[in-house]
Amino acid sequence: MFDVIIAGCGPTGAMLAAELRLHDVRVLVLEKETEPVSFVRIVGLHIRSIELLAMRGLLERILERGRQRPAGGFFAAINKPAPEGLGSAHAYLLGIPQPVIVHLLEEHAIELGAQVRRGCAVADFEQDDEGVTVELADGEQLRSRNLVGCDGGRSTVRKLLGVGFLGEPSRTETLMGEMEVGVPQEEIAAKVTEIRETDKRFSLGSFGEGVYRVVVPAAGVSDRAEPPTLEDFKQQLRTIAGTDFGVHSPRWLSRFGDATRLAERYRVRRVLLAGDAAHIHPPIGGQGLNLGVQDAFNLGWKLAAQIRGWAPETLLDTYQAERHPVAEDVLDNTRAQMELLSTEPGPQAVRRLLTELMDLDEVNRYLIEKITAIGIRYDFGEGPDLLGRRLRDIDVKQGHLYGLLHRGRGLLLDRTERLTVGGWSDRVDYLADPTAVLDVPCVLLRPDGHVAWIGDDQQDLDDHLSRWFGKPAN
Ligand SMILES: Cc1cc2nc3c(=O)[nH]c(=O)nc-3n(C[C@H](O)[C@H](O)[C@H](O)COP(=O)(O)OP(=O)(O)OC[C@H]3O[C@@H](n4cnc5c(N)ncnc54)[C@H](O)[C@@H]3O)c2cc1C
């Protein structure tokens, strides 16, 4: 009997497994592929995801394997630098391939004690009052208290749950792959610049040693199950650029669409959904993996609290209440971005106008805070603007604030040195620091780094400790 079975060891499943292990939850991750996928899909990690990894002590490992790039220029690929003062110690994009992120998160989860079984596809499940019986493709049955579907856009778990996945089907398909080219770099650069004047869905980016990442709109796709061929790439390059750049020796070839869909519910009793299993959208802006990892971060401590027995009654419901609107917003911003990539005169005019508007600091800041997820404010009720937002990494007397959050517990940061976490000290750490760089007296942080309370009154604090961390232990 496990506490939680996670279907899928992509970035979302691996992150969730690690978060649950911080609270000693018995976790089994089932992954249908025998080997990790080697496709390099993503642009990189945005600010909030880098912050989350810093909060769990993974910053150095991830920085070693990625390349820091400017944070701006991702909204609809409109080339504007990020505004000054984004309020983060990590105000950059970390270029890092998806397989490297997955490997790192899986390694982290295993180090913390998660079990990962590869070559095991979840085929069916049944839930009852005590738990969930999960059936694998080979007929083996496993039992756990909860099941979380982190099994990607075509999620078996979501389909078996019968949860609606509402939105739009794919209208345009794009080819993406890595391959060698047979013409000089200058020739490619000139052609790419010329085409990207009007068609932003076209790019050839160098990875060094003659290897290029090629992105080109696909022709009509008759069978989406059939993988693309090098000939498909050549044909499309010739149609759009007038030359196939002598491409050869592909490392990998893939195709993706722009379907945009959101699960109606993230939870049905003991079964939950996270990551692409709950939402899909075009990759513009590079948000999907980031969104999934952040879902896992939001869900992990809440599900752990439920299993450990201290969760307040409605805590697990806040997962959907907080994350569904965030996904809705990401879907909408990708819809808007896709319109801005259109070669039609109307959208092109809107794009020019928005490009001008982004010269206004406030507009640029608003959009970048959206894409990087640092602008998220959960609705925790009336209160100062900081309430419900994430707290950036600030200097405290013991070093950096995020350095105190590695164990995934709550934290009371008390500048008055008068308050106490009392009977919640098994779940919430306490730091008295009158010098902390904050313009409020005290903050209570949830394990995901969001501000759950601001104030200086012990009774009010106790009420909020109960709200988020359940009954005191004594
Ligand atoms: C071209 C492209 C570019 C992208 N660029 C970016 C980017 O720059 N930034 C960004 O944030 N996102 C980007 N994304 C999106 C990102 O790749 C996804 O959002 C991310 O992979 C979602 O992670 P996940 O763990 O939820 O799902 P997945 O990565 O799909 O992982 C799901 C896992 O579940 C496994 N699985 C499936 N079914 C079962 C089953 N029945 N039983 C057991 N295991 C199962 C799968 O094998 C897989 O390992 C891009 C996507 C594409 C296509």
Polypeptide structure, described:
The structure is a single chain. The protein is an alpha+beta fold. 32% of the residues lie in helices and 23% in strands. It has helices at residues 11-21, 47-55, 59-65, 98-111, 156-161, 185-196, 230-241, 288-308, 317-341, 345-357, 361-371, 458-469, and strands at residues 2-7, 27-31, 67-69, 93-95, 115-118, 122-127, 132-136, 141-149, 165-168, 173-180, 203-206, 211-217, 248-257, 260-263, 267-268, 271-273, 279-280, 395-396, 399-400, 410-414, 428-432, 442-445, 451-454. Helix 8 (288-308) runs antiparallel to helix 9 (317-341). It is globular. It starts with a strand and ends in a 5-residue tail after the last helix. The model has no long low-confidence stretch (mean pLDDT 94).
Averaged pLDDT, please? 94
Strand content: 15-25%
Structural class: alpha+beta
| Ends apart, CA distance between termini | 30 Å
Shape: globular
Q: Bound compounds, please?
A: flavin-adenine dinucleotide
Please count the beta strands (DSSP E, at least 2 residues each).
23
Number of helices: 12
Radius of gyration: 23 Å
Fraction of residues in helices? 25-40%
Q: Biggest sheet, open or closed, and with what strands and sense? A: 8 strands, mixed
Residue ranges: pLDDT <50 for 5 or more in a row?
none
